[in-house]
Amino acid sequence: MDRKGYQILLYFLRSLIYIKRALIWFLKKLWVVLVKLNDLFKNTIGFQLYKIGFKIQKYTGRLRIPWDSRLIELVGKRSVLQIALFLIIVLVMVPDSKLYTKDINKIPGRETLLYKLVGPGNQDFDLEEITVKLSTLTPTQQQESWKQGSVSVQPGSGSLGQNTLIKPDITSLSVGGTAVNKPTIIPGADLPSTTGPSKRTQVVLHTVQSGETIGAIAEEYSIDVVSILWANNLSVRSYIRPGDKLKILPVSGLTHKVKSGDTILKIAKTYDTSAEKIIEFNKLQTGGSDIQVGEELIIPEGVKPRPAYTYTPPTKKYSQLSQVVAPKPSVSAPAGSGYLWPTSVNRITQYYGWRHTGLDIGGPVGTPLYASKSGTVIKSQCGWNGGYGCYVIIDHGGGVQTVYGHASKLYVSYGNNVTQGQTIAAMGSTGRSTGPHIHFEVRINGRRSNPLQYIR
Question: Looking at the domain 327-455, which fold is it?
Answer without folding.
Answer: Glucose Permease (Domain IIA) (2.70.70)
